[in-house]
Amino acid sequence: MSEEKKELEVEKQELTTTEDSERTRDCQCFVPRSDIYEADDDIYVVVDVPGADNESIDITLEKNVLTINAYVDPGDIEGYSLAFAEYQIGDYQRSFRLSNEIDREKIEATVKDGVLRLVLPKAQEAKTRKIAVKVGA
Question: Which domain range does residue 36 map to?
């Protein structure tokens, strides 16, 4: 039997602007790929933002919408000119609508090696709890 080699190629999705919004930076903007994990006490959001660091990431929470903006400096290499590029460089923008089950005051964000990690703690009322069963009367 021969094994088939499967290749997964995913292209970056460019952000589409609406008629009532316009970007102020003259570069492409992409929707970053994200993974969302849920645990008993927290929801974790992992976002790919290659080229961005803690100084170039802006996270806002307004009216239950968490918005991530990551700005990437294309950074030309001195003494070289680009002959061919398979990878496009640009900014990133993504928004998530949060439910009332998230404790907004305790949201944390860290970035390392182009990966942004958000911890969204669940509000006390939304956490899973065990209910004891008693012998009834």
Answer: 26-73+87-125
Residues 74, 61, 97, 119: is their CA dihedral positive or negative? positive
Whether 97 is covered by a domain: the verdict is yes
In tens, the pLDDT along 3-58 reads 566 665 556 667 665 545 555 666 788 999 999 999 989 999 999 999 899 999 99
Integer Cα distance of 86 and 11 in angstroms: 10
Strand order in the sheet with 91-97: 13-14, 29-31, 91-97, 65-70, 57-62
Query: Tell me, what CATH number does 53's domain have?
Result: 2.60.40.790
pLDDT digits (tens, 9 = 90+) for 25-39: 667 889 999 999 999
DSSP class per residue in 56-104: SEEEEEETTEEEEEE-----PPTT------SS---EEEEEEE--TTB-G
Q: Report the C-alpha gap between 16 and 58 in whole angstroms.
A: 19
Question: In this structure, is residue 20 part of a structural domain?
Answer: no
